[in-house]
Amino acid sequence: MSNIAGINNVALTNQAMMHLQDRSPSLPGLGVLHGPSGYGKSFAASYAANAHRAFYIQCKSTWTRKKFLEAILKEMGIMPAKNLADMNEQACEELMQSGRPLIIDEADWLADSKSHVMLAMDLYEGSQASILLIGEERLPAKLAHYEKIHNRILSWVAAEPCQIRDVLQLADIYARDINIAEDLLLKVLDDTRGVTRRICVNLENIRNWAADNGVERVTLENYRQAIFTGKAPRGRS
To answer: What value does the mean pLDDT of the chain take?
Structure first.
């Protein structure tokens, strides 16, 4: 994963974690990383979790409050207690004793309900640990409805679309054995509007096309495939 440390959203997430970890004891310890789907937030979070030894969970839409706490305790390697209050105390105690941060991905699940979001509040208040919430672009607006948690947020980080330097680094990972001209990479960047996931799909497509056609250098001129933008193809009339 060190190969992608320079990709912009990975760097932004890492900086947010460092800001939380290095804060003064008098400052709040919650951070929020937000942005559109496909910007590589979860991948950046996974990198940051490894770099900072953070506990990491990814919320699911079907979860209950109990399942949320059980998932955190499972990540910590702790057998969950029987009730929510005791599970919360278990998690808080581990966060305090270990000094490790917590990353909660798909945190929109938390923000969609006051009873859910207060779980994060309880974890923070009970441990004073660094906690990074990750979600879609509307996550800040959702959290604004809950003043108790909103005013404990130290850092707001907006994920950004890829730039050409990011595409070049992604090409070294997803198509490292293929020579791709910069004009084609710029076309991919423009047509995908910098969405990381779609860029990666195109790089894989270019790699496969080059291998199937025996092409050593792929350019905008000789590449015979459409750029994948995420839009469904039109049906035949």
So the answer is: 93
